[in-house]
Amino acid sequence: MKTLCNYISRYMGVLVLVVAAIALLWPASFISIDTWAINPMLGVIMFGMGLTLSPQDFRIVLSRPKDILIGCLAQFTVMPLLALGLSWAFALPKELALGVILVGCCPGGTASNVITYLAKGDLALSVGMTAASTLLAPLLTPLLVWLLAGTMVQVDTIGMLLSIVYVVIAPIAVGLVFQRFLPKFTRSVVPYLPAFSSLAIAFVVGIIVAHNASRLLVGGMIVVLVVMLHNLCGLTLGYLIGRLLGLEDTKRRAISIEVGMQNSGLASSLATLHFAAYPLATIPGAIFSVWHNISGALVAAVFKRSALK
User: Fold this and answer.
1) How would you classify residue 203: left for phi > 0, otherwise alpha for psi between -120 and 50, otherwise beta?
2) Alpha helix (H) residue ranges in 150-212
3) Potential cystine with 247: which of 85, 88, 160, 251 (Cβ 3.0-4.6 Å)?
4) What is the dihedral of CA 257, 294, 289, 221, to 10 degrees?
5) How far apart are CA 16 and CA 20, in angstroms?
6) Residue 176 contacts residue 55 (beta carbons within 8 Å)
7) Which tens digit of pLDDT belongs to each residue from 162-182?
8) Phi and psi at residue 245, in whole multiples of 5°?
9) How far is Cα of residue 233 from the mean position of the Cα atoms in its chain?
10) Do 273 and 162 contact (CB within 8 A), yes or no?
């Protein structure tokens, strides 16, 4: 079973791509599952993240404040500004621009820690950045969306804050409680969590893609291009920021991956909950979920080869 789980987590990008293709070509395979299921599934993923975090991870934030501060500043400036710039440069319709901005304003994705590990990056820094950006998200994500998209649509910042608390913070807190009071249960399930999270992310992508298949097939190519550029520019700029500041190569890799890989499932969830009048806003998050796992795997291979040399 553990071998199978390792295989699933290692090839998460392929799995997500296959599920997205099935959902796009045969939407009926996922269309029966309502989009309300996305939030509980994200909550379960965040619960798993809480089970894997430890007090040591939070001590990392306090013991390495400079590195974490650099990473979080890059996270919440580079990706939101890239989202706005690309939306303007490609003259995206309001709904799609909103979706791209939502992706850019979300915290780092949970898969970034796995990719950093595979890339021989600074795993402690990656985990610390994920924890810090996730804790900051209830305040910064709604605020940034309001600043960047408030002129296009009405943004319910308080509602978004509460949604992030319910979907992200509360499940992580419950996971930490389980870890503290049920250590035997935690140790028994942790080895299977990466595979479970991979399957859950693929399932979320399948639901989102199936419910937007017709829109994706009609005008998806320009959005795919914008999403790819958003991710690749984030990866590149994250690495360059680390280089300009004279950080070690392992730290540059961690910051690159943390900045480039977003919690795009949360972006699609927020679009579904708070921007139901703009259904296309869920599409960038769905595409990002597929693409950043593929690009992350490729970047990890390049970084790993460089480290071995």
Assistant:
1) alpha
2) 157-164, 170-181, 183-189, 193-211
3) 251
4) 120
5) 6
6) no
7) 988 888 888 888 888 888 888
8) -90, 5
9) 15
10) no
